[in-house]
Amino acid sequence: MVRVGIIGGTGYTGGELSRLLCTHPDVEIAALTSRTNAGKKVQDVHTFLRGYVDLEFTEKISDTKDLDFVYVATPHGVAMKEVPALIDQGIKCIDLSGDYRLHDVDVYQKWYGHEHTDVDNLQKAVYGLPEFFRDEIKGADLVANPGCYATSIILACGPLLKAGVVDEDIIVDAKSGTSGAGMVPSERTHHSTCGETIIPYSIGKHRHTPEIEMAVDKFAGSHTSVTFVPHLLPIVRGILSSCYFNVKKDMTQEEVDSIYSKQYGKETFVHYVPEASIRAVVASNHAQVSSRVIGNKVVSFGALDNLVKGASGQAVQCMNLMLGLDEKKGLNIPGLGV
């Protein structure tokens, strides 16, 4: 059994990791940390884990011995302080914050507002999107788990950019449920503010923007221009990203369908469908992608659960690859549908 620790076990991401891992056939959850809940039973904080996780939160991961694998599910700025000691001990890690996603330290400082203190590991970290970087993930000691918006957008954009059939100027209209904002309440996520409306936010300054550009630049082979406008939806889970492209030459729907089918036809967790749907993927590690040709434009859609394929589920998928396990283990369940 693989002994796993989770740093930051009380947030939505940490709780979702625990929900997925507690039934994973090859995993033992050996430690969960929480500064605010140290000493409390996990099942008393996450009541949905009652009968599944019989542990107490500890304040530090170092309070637990003999870990094989650690997830860091904390706000940005924390992982870079925790990861170096873990890597030095030979413990494989996945960071679910933004600390290791951007290899350019200047870009990191610009978007996150502080200096990166673990540049060596930053350069070694592998971007954890299995459908595009599976081989690199298999050999990694440290994986940077992609952001939720970024995952939905890259899945929708990647195949067309790789095929070289669209211009590198992309407009993205993306919508996310309120759980994407994390567990700590804010004025924007207060129900009376967001319950019956759609709110655009962080326009031109959302931290997933450079991550999206970094990934799609690799596919395009040149610098792309991504206009990314996120919106808050009055739902709990789910993201739908609509990506707009100009085509370089006239294309039929069948030609576009063929590009996506070639990319995702053999994938377990990403499905090319006639209409991408949030409800089809909620509570699962599955994502749906669809597209439509409209004259000289293509609109592509990416739908996923921001807490699963957009965060914790994708992290478990990457862990399976890093440890040489079946990629589907602990994750092979369908979405809720309704």
Word description of this protein:
The protein has 338 residues and is α/β, with parallel strands linked by helices. Helices cover 33% and strands 21% of the residues. The chain contains 12 helices and 13 strands. A 7-stranded mixed beta sheet has the order 8-9-7-10-13-12-11. The protein has a 6-stranded parallel beta sheet with strand order 2-1-3-4-6-5, sandwiched between helices. Strand 12 and strand 13 form a beta hairpin. It is globular and about 60 Å long. The model has no long low-confidence stretch (mean pLDDT 93).
Key traits:
single chain, 338 residues, alpha/beta, 7-stranded mixed beta sheet
The whole-number mean of residue pLDDT values reads 93
Structural class: alpha/beta
**Helix share bin:** 25-40%
The total of helices stands at: 12
Low-pLDDT stretches: none
Major β-sheet annotation: 7 strands, mixed
Radius of gyration: 19 Å
Distance between the termini: 35 Å
Strand order of the largest sheet: 8-9-7-10-13-12-11
Question: What can be said about this structure in brief?
Answer:
The protein is an alpha/beta fold. The protein has helices at residues 12-21, 42-45, 79-88, 105-112, 119-124, 130-138, 148-163, 191-194, 209-220, 253-264, 278-281, 308-322, and strands at 2-7, 27-32, 69-72, 92-95, 126-127, 142-144, 169-176, 199-200, 225-232, 239-246, 270-272, 287-294, 297-304.
